[in-house]
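Module 6 notes. Inverse folding takes a fixed backbone as the condition and produces residue identities as the prediction. Think of it as a translation problem where the source language is geometry and the target language is the twenty amino acids. Below is one complete input and output pair. Work through it position by position during the lab.
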């Protein structure tokens, strides 16, 4: 490929920073993927021996977390790619659609990834990461970014070994090898894919297209919230539509609205500005990525908790169920607190109080009706949202002031 053609593949600084319709289309498959992850979480919490003990449930969640981290890493790498390359170019569109197709198979494999479809999950993940990286190694001849992809290809090749070997092993071996594979992938990205004798990459997509990446993370939060609505609505239809289950759906919707409100006011609206104002946009961007992973994880656990409430709204909440119904919002608030620090170099008190309130309520809620536990979680989130509104009333909009 000629040098001019390679240059045309890149997103210029003057290019529009808004995500394209192709990227929104790409996200559709992740609604399905997140739905499958929530389904796995619900299974984790409804197994008899698991539901009675919170620690055992958390161990089961750890296996599902491996699947979420794999899905998240592919989505994040794709967002980085479309921030660096022009999504209107046919070659980039091909890579995005091929990744979307692979992600569909990845989502299909989630339900049995820890058993019979483990090989499909692992091989699809490896094919996506190695395949598209190899595509750019071949395509970007003569450009500096080719070196970045060559370095990352070494790391993805290294992680492919535990991914594929783990798919054939027993549960403990598989989980250990997949955790090692994910550690290689995440550590490689964090360190800039260092390879002995070749050095490391110091190119950060956040420094070039921070506004675009900020909007992509906003959109993934919306995808996760949309999954919550989809799951709770579908759960209601799987049983009798009685008053208690209808109220459970209403509480689930209220909780989703509050999560949305807490995210977007105000740090969620100005992430792009915060990155632009940062001394080190790359470091701030990586922090924002971690914040969003925590928030999305919290949303998914909250979604699983909502489905548990819809399963048996008036029964006796098992310890693991309480952990999901209250722990999801607490994890979300923890991620949101870190996100606030990214945007404003501070954390507001209501978020910390909300986390402490959810933790303090947990032991008091065991064996109470799940509907009452869900109401308590919604009340805490409502308190945080109201505190935000009171604090902002009559004041000018706060501007981004990221940590130095």
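Target side of the pair, the amino acids:
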């Amino acid at each position: 490929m000629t040098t001019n053609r390679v240059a045309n593949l890149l997103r210029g600084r003057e290019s529009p920073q808004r995500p394209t319709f192709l990227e929104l289309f790409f996200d559709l498959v992740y609604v399905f993927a997140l739905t499958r992850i929530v389904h796995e979480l619900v299974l984790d919490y409804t197994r008899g021996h698991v539901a009675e003990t919170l620690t055992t449930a958390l161990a089961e969640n750890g296996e599902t977390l491996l699947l979420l981290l794999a899905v998240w890493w592919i989505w994040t790498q794709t967002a980085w790619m479309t921030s660096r390359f022009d999504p209107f170019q046919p070659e980039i569109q091909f890579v995005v659609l091929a990744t979307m197709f692979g992600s569909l198979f990845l989502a299909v494999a989630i339900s049995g990834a820890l058993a019979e479809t483990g090989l499909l999950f692992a091989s699809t993940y490896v094919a996506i990461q190695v395949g598209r990286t190899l595509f750019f190694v071949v395509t970007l001849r003569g450009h500096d970014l080719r070196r970045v992809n060559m370095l990352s290809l070494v790391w993805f090749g290294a992680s492919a070994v535990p991914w594929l070997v783990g798919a054939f092993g027993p549960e403990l071996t598989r989980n250990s090898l997949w955790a090692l594979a994910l550690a290689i992938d995440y550590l490689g990205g964090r360190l800039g894919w260092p390879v002995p004798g070749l050095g490391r990459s110091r190119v950060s997509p956040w420094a070039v297209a921070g506004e675009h990446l900020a909007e992509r993370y906003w959109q993934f939060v919306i995808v996760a919230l949309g999954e919550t609505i989809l799951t709770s609505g579908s759960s209601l239809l799987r049983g009798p539509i009685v008053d208690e289950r209808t109220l459970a759906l209403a509480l689930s919707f209220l909780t989703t609205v509050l999560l949305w409100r807490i995210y977007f006011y105000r740090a969620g609206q100005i992430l792009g500005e915060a990155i632009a104002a940062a001394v080190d946009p790359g470091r701030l961007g990586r922090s924002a990525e971690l914040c969003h992973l925590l928030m999305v994880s919290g949303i998914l656990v909250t979604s699983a908790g909502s489905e548990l409430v819809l399963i048996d709204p008036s029964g006796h909440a098992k310890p693991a169920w309480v952990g999901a119904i209250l722990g999801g919002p607490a994890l979300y608030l923890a991620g949101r607190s870190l996100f606030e620090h990214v945007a404003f170099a501070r954390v507001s008190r209501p978020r910390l109080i909300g986390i402490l309130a959810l933790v303090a309520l947990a032991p008091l809620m065991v064996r109470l009706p799940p509907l009452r536990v869900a109401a308590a979680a919604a009340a805490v989130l409502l308190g945080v949202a109201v505190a935000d509104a009171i604090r902002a009333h009559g004041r000018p909009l706060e501007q981004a002031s990221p940590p130095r």
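Reference fact for the lab report: The chain has 15 helices and no strands.
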